[in-house]
Amino acid sequence: MARRAAAALKSLLKLRIPAGGASAAPPTGPALGQAGVNIMEFCKDFNARSGHLVKDTPVPVVVKVFEDRTFEFTTGPPPTSFFLKRAAGIDKGASKPGHEVAGQVSLKQVYEIAKIKHTDPRQSLEGLCRSIIGSARSMGIEVIRK
C-alpha cells in the first residue's frame, strides 16, 4: 500500500515468509494483526511480489507500519543457508561443524549462489564467495574444487 501522507512510523516488523505463502495463519497473520496491518492486503501484495520465486523459498521481509495504518514492505534475497542446504541436498547442517560433514558443494555452486545474493555493488563477487564459503564451513558443508 502506498503511503498517502508523511505519517509517523508506528512499528517495524521483520519476518521470514515462504515465497507465495503469506496467509492470515500463524505466525504471519497474528504478527501483522497486532501491528494493525490489513492482513489480506499484505498477503495479496506479498504473494504477487514473490510469485517468481520457487514455492516455499524463505523470503526475509521488513514491514514498516505507519500511524495511519498504511504499510510498506521490502523483500530481501533468501538466506545463504537456504541456498547452501539446497545445493548440498541436505535438510540441516552438521550438529558438530568441523568434526562432521553434512554435505558437499562445489565452487561453481558457491559462485552461482554469490551471483544470486550479489545486490550491493560495493561488495565484490569474490568477497561474497568467501563469505558463502565461511557460511558453508560453519554449517558443516564441505566446499570442493570441481
UniProtKB/TrEMBL annotation:
One of its GO terms (cellular component) is mitochondrial large ribosomal subunit. It holds the Pfam family Ribosomal_L11. Residues 77-143 form the Large ribosomal subunit protein uL11 C-terminal domain. One of its GO terms (biological process) is translation. Keywords: Ribonucleoprotein, Ribosomal protein, Signal. SMART domains: RL11. Residues 13-71 form the Large ribosomal subunit protein uL11 N-terminal domain. Residues 1-24 form the signal peptide. The keyword Ribonucleoprotein applies. The keyword Ribonucleoprotein applies. One of its GO terms (molecular function) is structural constituent of ribosome. NCBIfam families: L11_bact. Belongs to the universal ribosomal protein uL11 family. This is Large ribosomal subunit protein uL11m.
